[in-house]
Design goal:
Layout: H1 8-25, H2 42-49, H3 54-58, H4 73-76, E1 84-88, H5 94-103, E2 108-113, H6 116-128, E3 134-138, E4 151-157, H7 166-176, E5 177-190, H8 196-199, H9 203-206, H10 215-224, E6 228-237, H11 240-245, H12 247-256, H13 260-267, E7 270-278
Parallel strand pairs: 1-2, 1-4, 2-3, 4-5
Antiparallel strand pairs: 5-7, 6-7
Helix pairs in contact: 1-6, 7-10
Length: about 280
């Protein structure tokens, strides 16, 4: 299937299957937990490198953090007691549980994920951690199973790049937010176009690469949805080490016989950003 353009439904199917496998094996987007990229502490190492504190990592149930993010949207969302938070692509529940700790017992956190295996894992983690203010719903982030004007904050961590229709995702986020509601997402974007063999790779979607779009296009999609005060709070280079050890990158190198130096060149095209926006009154 390499090098073949796939339709949206096929992309979603591949992404769902890929993340179902991650949920079962406990591996990360950067690399499997048992890979040469690290040990059982890999997810913790990745998470600390992208902005999570030791306190946050210890505050969630074991197994909630799979090292799948590219930033810490919870830290930047300035969550307040009693708020309702929606996490797009909630995975095993890591950011949801951190958000739940911030909004308190009078607050509410909703996680949406399209992978049943991830939902099962997240619900198990919620039970382990006795989180009564968190719920997880099955659904696609382009068609959120959430009512209009319901939530105060929408967060997402390295997930929207996987959605074929990113404009629809931001339109949906705008719909479910209350007036004055905030959007805070961490994601992967491009500074220049990726080579065709990456963009056409089905496997690269699971590695968070081929679904990424240009930075300016990403920001424009947020503004087009209606958000105001849209700004990039932070941006950082995508980890070359992760790219070299990413199972996607390894598969591409093995198949196309490209050198690690070329992977480094590709890595220079990819950055992680944290973006903020507000729904007007």
């Amino acid at each position: 299937m390499k090098g073949v353009k796939v339709k949206d439904k096929q992309i979603k199917k591949v992404v769902r299957e890929g993340y179902a496998k991650i949920a079962r094996q406990g591996s990360s987007c950067c690399a499997p937990v048992n890979s040469c990229c690290g040990s059982a502490d890999l997810a913790r190492t990745i998470s600390k490198s992208i902005g999570y504190t030791d306190g946050e990592l210890k505050a969630v149930p074991e197994g909630a953090n799979l090292g799948l993010g590219c930033g810490n949207p919870v830290a930047l969302a300035s969550l307040r007691e009693g708020e309702t938070v929606l996490d797009l692509g909630s995975g095993a529940g890591f950011d949801c549980f951190l958000a739940a700790n911030k909004v308190g017992k009078d607050g509410r956190v909703i996680g949406v994920d399209m992978t049943p295996e991830m939902l099962e894992k997240a619900r198990e983690n919620a039970e382990k951690g006795n989180y009564t203010n968190v719920e997880f719903r099955l659904g696609e982030i382009e068609n959120l199973p959430v009512a209009d004007n319901l939530v105060d904050v929408v967060i997402s961590n390295c997930v929207i790049n996987l959605a074929p229709d990113k404009r629809k995702v931001f339109t949906e986020a705008f719909r479910v937010l209350k007036p004055r509601g905030r959007l805070m997402v961490s994601d992967i974007v491009l500074l220049r176009e990726l080579p065709d063999f990456i963009k056409k790779s089905i496997e690269a979607y699971i590695g968070c690469l081929s679904g990424a779009i240009m930075r300016d296009e990403y920001i424009e999609a947020i503004k087009a949805a209606g958000f105001q005060r849209v700004s990039i709070i932070d941006e950082a280079a995508f980890s070359i080490e992760c790219m070299v050890n990413d199972p996607t990158a390894k598969a591409i190198m093995a198949t196309l016989e490209i050198l690690p130096e070329e992977v480094k060149e590709i890595a220079g095209s990819v950055i992680s950003i944290k973006v903020y926006g507000v729904k007007p009154i």
